Amino acid sequence: MSKKILLMTDIHITNHDINIIGLNPALRFRHCLEHASSYHADASHLFIMGDLTHNGSYDEYKILERLLKNQPFPVTLMLGNHDNRSAFSAVFSNRAEPFQHGSQNFGKTKIIHLDTLDDSVKNRGSGLMCMQRMHWFEYNLGLGDGPILVLSHHHMLNSGFDGLDKIRLLNGNKIAGIIAASGRCKMVINGHIHRTIFSSYKGVPHATLKSTCHQTPLLLSSNDPELAVDEPGGYGVLLLDGDTPILHHVDFN
Length: 253
Ligand SMILES: [Fe+2]
Hints:
Elements: E1 3-8, H1 25-39, E2 45-49, H2 58-67, E3 75-78, H3 85-91, E4 102-106, E5 109-113, H4 131-142, E6 148-152, H5 162-165, H6 172-182, E7 185-190, E8 197-201, E9 204-208, E10 233-240, E11 246-252
Parallel strand pairs: 1-2, 2-3, 5-6, 6-7, 7-9
Antiparallel strand pairs: 1-10, 4-5, 8-9, 10-11
Bound molecules: fe (ii) ion.
């Protein structure tokens, strides 16, 4: 029987009553959780793939902590460029020190989630895997012999959005190459772009999921990575069944 995993990303929690293009991120995220627990309470796990908060503040993480109480599934939190490692750690028990990455098995499949937050970037931007994280990743990629899925906040490959591609995972091509060379990775899934996209690199599919809050309009040549539009939020429903993972994407209101 396949295992069901839920993937949400770019929830961008703000302090109470602060909206993003007229949308309340906490309210949107609550609606997303309600939708997921109504239709997918049988899920084994929920990954929230970074940009947990909009400003990386302690108060925003406390709001997120309250929103996540009493969920029917275990939750793994990842970090994005809008996050702050020390504020996150202050609320969620130092789990991001030194890095918020990990590896978990679901049946035969191993899911590796990366930490691509570049603490040195001041203006909310690109991601980077430093040497320490690269060594950790390559070691974990080599363990075992079953299928692997990789979750990353930042996208590794060019997306066609000029502005967002300037702030992708800066060593993304190198990492995508290491993933392809492993011969075991069935899919790479990321957030960051706030839009549904499918591509591939050396035979490995790469997929990008929508935000639960605001989306990126399809203006590919814009150099502005902050463009946002009020379109329905969405999340991923991943079915793990041996060598053939299936990724569904569902919108909610
Ligand atoms: Fe985001």
